[in-house]
Amino acid sequence: MTQQVRGVIARSVGKPVELVTINVPDPGPGEAVVGIQACGVCHTDLHYREGGINDEFPFLLGHEAAGIVESVGDGVTEVAPGDFVILNWRAVCGQCRACTRGRPQYCFNTHNAKQKMTLEDGTELSAALGIGAFADKTLVAAGQCTKVDARAPATVAGLLGCGVMAGIGAAINTGAVGRGDSIAVIGCGGVGMAAIAGARLAGAAKIIAVDVDDRKLAAAREFGATELVNSTATDAVEAIQAATGGFGADVVVDAVGRPETYRQAFYGRGLAGTVVLVGVPTPEMRIELPLLDVFGRGGSLKSSWYGDCLPSRDFPMLIDLYLQGRLPLDKFVSETIGITDIEPAFEKMRHGDVLRSVVVF
């Protein structure tokens, strides 16, 4: 039986979000309905509202979420009603070339729920990243639900659903940072802070935080940064090289995704070092690099999509590390807010006043 719940939608480009009644259908085969307990406010939600993802309005926003499975459809075996889960936007298919080669984190055919949630008049909603969790309940593919230890608060667990996982994964999974390595992270928003936390977790010896905001740099120290560089006052490349004995960092993570920051990452890495792009560029952005420099410096130029994570592997592990006191997920939560406070949270995010505002249901 279809349920009616509250949900926050973006109806058109640039317009303030609206709290409306939405229809959530019963789960079909391979689907689950999840009662949302908490959901982070992510830059991606703002990109949806601004038309930066696509033009399939209206959008049901929200995707960094955790909650309780309420019901499941036929054929669902991975989760059951009552399970505490983190929602992910990468339900792997198990059958594509990547999956059959044992690399499901690169699945080419990730999927979402087949049914659509709707407005009261029947208008179909496009769920942000196939989730749509600024709502009391949402409908997802069962594979988008990852069961984790219920002792973790939903306010921190849900953050692994997007930004925190993207950053930790960029450092550990994509960049393969290890004990004794040096890493520079350009951009100390939520994703960059998570890359710093991941590098510390992996045992990096030198963690260089680069940003234009001294407030963010001070916070980066709390997450494990050993060196702070304000690139408005100091040349970022020179500072990274100086902090690494003139060599450059073993890994440089670009958590901004602009041509100028990518260039800093490229020249800030050491010979045979690795550049990881995890910040999301816009379609018109271009970069030019001398091909001889690409050849002569060796190493790897990588992109990290969702931190190259496998939710079923990484989410439970990271929650366990949080419960052991080894991963400070609480530090990412700048404030908890209500479902009517999302528009002000977007403004705080624009001005760099928060790492994460988290909606509590």
From TrEMBL:
Cofactor or coenzyme needed: Zn(2+)
Tell me, what is one Gene Ontology molecular-function annotation carried by this entry? mycothiol-dependent formaldehyde dehydrogenase activity
At the top level, the lineage of the source is: Bacteria
Per the UniProt entry, the Enzyme Commission number(s) are 1.1.1.306
Q: Which PROSITE patterns match?
A: ADH_ZINC
Could you say which enzyme class this protein belongs to? oxidoreductase
State which residue ranges cross the membrane. none
Q: Which SUPFAM superfamilies match?
A: GroES-like (SSF50129), NAD(P)-binding Rossmann-fold domains (SSF51735)
Give UniProt keywords alphabetically: Metal-binding, NAD, Oxidoreductase, Zinc
Q: Which residues form the Enoyl reductase (ER) domain?
A: 14-359
**Matching NCBIfam families:** mycoS_dep_FDH
Q: Which family does it belong to?
A: Belongs to the zinc-containing alcohol dehydrogenase family.
Its protein name is S-(Hydroxymethyl)mycothiol dehydrogenase
